[in-house]
Amino acid sequence: MAAIYSGIYGKLKSSKTSWEDKLKLARFAWISRQCFLPNKEQVLLDWVSHTLVSNYNKKLELDDEVVEKLWTYLDNVIHSRRLQDLLKSGKTIGLSFSIAQVINERLSEACSQKTQQNIGTVLNCSSGILSTPSLSIIYTAKCELLVDLLSKLCKLACQHLASDSAVGSQLFSVLQLTFAQYLLIQRQQTNPNRVFGQVTGHLLQPCLLLRHLLTVRGWTQADDNHVRQHLSREIRNQIETLLQAGLFQAELFSSYREELLPEQEVQEKKKGSFKSLLLPVNTVQTSLGSDFCEPALHGAVVAGSVSLIYKLFLDSYCKAENHLVCFHMFSRLFGCLRLSDLQQGGRGDTLSPVDWSTELLALEQLLSLVLSSDIYNVASDRIRHKEVQFGFYRKLAQTLLTHSQASIPAWFRCLKLLISLNHLIVEPDLDDLVSSAWIDAEASEPRVKKPQETLINTMFQTYSKLRQFPRLFEEVLTVICRPAVDELRPPIFSAGLTVKLRECLLELPPNQILDILCLFVEKCQTLIIPAVEGSTDMALKLMAVCSVLHAFLFNMRSLDDVTPSPVVLRTQSLLAKIQKGIIQPLMELLQAPRREEEKSDLWLRKASDAALLLVYTWVEVDTLFGVSCSKYVSPTAEIAGAVTEPAPKQGYFSISAFLPALREQSWERVMEIANSFASPSKYCLELLMLQKMKMILMQTEADLQALQHAAAFILESGRSIMSRGESEPWDGDISTISDLTYPTAHWHLIMFNLNILLPYISLEDTEYIANVLLETLMLAKAQEAAMDQENSISTEKISLGLMHSSFLPEMKILHCAFLTRLINKFSMVLPIATRDLVDLPLQQLFASNIPWHEEILAPCKTVDLLEVPSENKLLKDELSLSWTTLEKVAQSIVLFAKSGCPVTLKESQLESCLGLLDIFSLLKLDSFLPSDCTRCFLVLLSLLANTRASTSCSKLLFLKFLSTCLHLLRCLQAGRNANSVFKVLHASDVLEHVMASQFTASKLFSDVFTVPVWAQYLQEVQAFLENFLQMIIERRQSVRLNLEKFISFLVSCKPDASAAKSEDQKNWNPAAEQLLLMAFTTLCQVVTLYLQQLPEKRLHSADVLSALLEPVVLQMVRTVQHGLQSSTPNKLLPVAFIPSVTTLLKADLSHPVRRGWQKEPNGFLEQPRIKLYQEFYSQILRELPCAGDNLQFLQPALQFLTVFCSVPELYPGKEMAVMVGFAIKKLLSGPAITTQVIQSMEMELTEVLVQLLENCSAEEFYAMMRLVLQGLELRNVWQQKAKMQTKEACQDQSLISIIVVPILETVAALLRQGEGVLVNPHHVSLAFSILLTVPLDHLKLEDYRGVFLGVHEVLFSIVQCHPKVLLKAAPSFLSSFHRLVVSVMHEGRQKADRGNTDEFEVILQCAHLVERMYTHIAAEMEDFTVFSSFMVAQYVTELQKVTLHPAVKTHLTEGIYHILDLCIERDVKFLNASLPAGVREVFKDLYSDYNHYHKAKKQGEEKYTA
What per-residue confidence (pLDDT) applies to 350? Predict the structure, then answer.
């Protein structure tokens, strides 16, 4: 047969055979074993290679389709299993070099975009060739071909990345493989010059372009995930490795040094040598400078590449003696940037903002490398190198400051790095730096503001440490006073900068701070004050100077009794100068009479802002110094007695209280100017008034009227502006207050000083504060997402902060007023058409004529009952009026609920109610007074009982609304004044109307009662009922009556089969059925629990309540049966059914016991009831494996099984334990069961299994064990994937605590049973297979502790209980134990950041266990003596790799000393001879310490041992 096919080769070579037939013959010849050709595989490979080469050499002219099929054939052959098997068997098969050239040419054509046909097949061929060693020789033997291939692939990848099409994995997989192959060849080459030429000539440019495109590409979901997450990072790393090895080999350093260093430097280092012809830096610069990509990309690629090249250069050559070479390399690479042109006089406007950002980012990276590598040594540069580095950095700083780019973050970071190198670099241009980077810099964006603050902070720290802070602020003052467009200047100190300034001021000597302040005061007196009138420019300068004075005075260290007297005197003098030289002239300027149109001039407003800011600062500081320093004498004391002024008008601030030299009438004119605009001066007036209140309160007799006037002034000051409802976030700086930030500043002042203001404001003002608080909270809920991103202060944040604090409940008047406003808002949400009907109760709850606050004020009114009986009666009448109103409201709500005409809410109204309920939930409900608690209850009850959602409304939204109301009702019930509700409502009425409203509302939920939101709603209803019923029982007032009424209501709802067909029950739905069952269940549970706790003396009450429950139980049975009959097949049981049946079963099981029925021989349970439970049990078993991760079904289902399985008589003659165990096993093996699900139902699972094991027979027990162990191979528990290594097993951290640790504990428990149970030694030795597979590294500490203790317990159990097996399996035991030792050494390494004491205690505990095991082995296991030297060798080998923490080392060393006790002299000699050099030194140190400490101590103890 073979002879028939032997002529194939001739047909392949024949020109008469068509190419289609040739390809068919070639495919047949490759796969057929009946075709005989000598060296067939090589012949066929040569044929296809030759054909392709001939086609590309134009010797053959083939159709594109034929060429594509030839490439496909070659690809199939290369990747065929047959070829791989032949190569593995040792057969020599190869390809010609010409096919590599053809592949490269084909890729070159693709790069030039001539044709893209069969490029995928060509790439497949390349991949197959490179991954097969015997074929890849065509590239590895001719490195030029491999370099050319890599270059072409890089260019092709760049084209793909630059296009808009999705990126696939094929090209990048081949590229990554080619990089790996080239790097392998590159390391083997011995000629560094040749490698350098290959890299710079062919690879540098495409690699840099590829790296840039990989870095900047905006990856999308359409791109291949493997490329995006893995290959792109791997290829970038390979590029860096290639460049490092190709450009910066150690042998090339002399060439770099000769090229970079000046001539004289080279001669000093290498006298008499000739310069190398290789100019590596120039070559790299030329490559970077040439046009190897599009002009739009070129600048960005070069900018991104210079920092990489410099980093690789430093990694290779950066040593102390080479720092000058490294600097010159930096300067040459900087020359590649477009920034360098600016130093030669180039124009900065030639660069776009994007170009500036790219260039500055590159410069920042270069400077960071210079700084981190410590290349610039100031002293060395000045003494040895004529400040060559300093001169370069100076020019660089001048360039940056000349071409300011304050909108780019990297510009600030570059300047910061230059200051970090040496502050003298920027010192000559300090004024320009302060101006362009601080005072005049427009850095409003957060991404720019942060680096700007970092730069200024660096300046603060530098000049503070140098004690030259006055020098810095001298320049600040100079810049402020320059003629400039001051209106555009931002505030000098932001909130972040103020914090940094404070840190520096606390470290500075007081005299330096006073020097700065005196400088500003003097400049202000001499230059600004005389020229401020009529000059907007000077007024703005004045404001800037005053803000600096404010920042310094508020953040410097306060005077105290230990402050030196000269400092105190100088401070007094300074404040006197400020008062007389600045404040007084400004006040005189402001008090001058002016026409109405002049009062709005900008200069006057700014002068007013500056003056009042300085007045407030002066007053605050003067007061503080007077309180904290007994040596301080206020400047006002000297003239306080000399000035007499008429009494000020009520409501106005008396300036004479602080600055006696100023007249009150003049001050009124100043206040008129300040109050006319929402400005810093208006805010400062409020601060001054607050300061006045504080000073009055510090006096022995407070002026109540003055306090009330001051508080009213503060509130009235911002009332009109707050009413607009427009505000913007504020940064906390007084000087930045504007029309839109003033409301925030004003609200901040009120909220943070409520404890001072609240006692002295009227009820109307309290209601105003409550109203603003509510409005801002409603706005906060609407803007919640945006608020999280704001770092500044906003009215919403301030209000939320008060709500979350513990202060609001203590302010009971405000608390009450806020509740009143909240009820008012609820009333406004309801539909207008129904206001007269439904809103009437709510309107009464916030009626202004009802004294709701009297309950708070009553204890404060000290009325003598004998002297003023009329006032006492009036107080009682006011209190009774509020409760009478509450009773009327309660009756109105009940009557309206009985009418059956609820108010219909639209979706928008529901959402508004939910927003208000969210605000309601922020209140501390437990802190309400009885009347307020009752008001809250009535509001929530009205919303529940008297409102419904429209049919078009979202049902899930309505469910959320109902759940929220029920949750808040439950929170009110938990409060201390919860019983106050029963003053106005009967408990049974509350329960009846709440449940009736829920039954009515449930008609909307017939199609959503299977969603999770429905289950949460049921839980809220259940929790409310449970709490309310418990309250009824605990009060012990009309318990029976309330329960009878509620039970009769529930029993009247009959959803059984007969009723369902009747007219009045035709609309019954499963949702209402679940609600009813849940109510029955909760009622039974609460009452049953109460009955169980009753003492024997009250058995009559127990019988009465038990009799009440009998109709409930009967009704539950009918409801359950009806529900089961109408339940949908193939769906899980409704959530409410399972707890109901469980409760029924518990009631039936406890009922005979109470009645004494257990004495009757056959009186266990009624047969119909038993059948119900059996059917329910069977249905639970069917549905359990299908439940997935539905915990709302699983938890109650397992609870039912626990109760059912506790009574084997319910299912006689059946293997209940096995059936339940099998169902649980199917459930746990399902794909939806995760670690979290198991943890959530762990308690229920445990209870079921305990019941099963307690009541099962021996046969059932063994059957269950078989179920558990069936198919479970312990050694493979962690091997989730094929070929997974032990170190990779710990990647699934979730398995550790759930599977690994319990298995180890189980194995240890089995081993502790001893040889009497585990008679087969092989079973014991299997434990070692488990231990050697358990992961011990890369674990979280809690997981590590569990695994370590588990492994240790298994080993110790073998040592104690199986000594015979241990002797035979000693190597396995030692390997397992050594893994513990290694893991402790790894975890117990000495770390700089070891700060958690609890975590370290775990490591110490593990080290102590290792010490104990060593000690036990040495003391109890004499047969282990032969292994002692092996154990010591293992220990010192690992010890040589790490530096242990001293405490860990102490434990391990003590343990190994006991093993050294077993070593004889021959063992020590053996170790000294066989250990490697480094390890041998460690052993010698260990053995020396052993002889010096341990052995000597042991011999001493033996000497005195009897």
Answer: 77
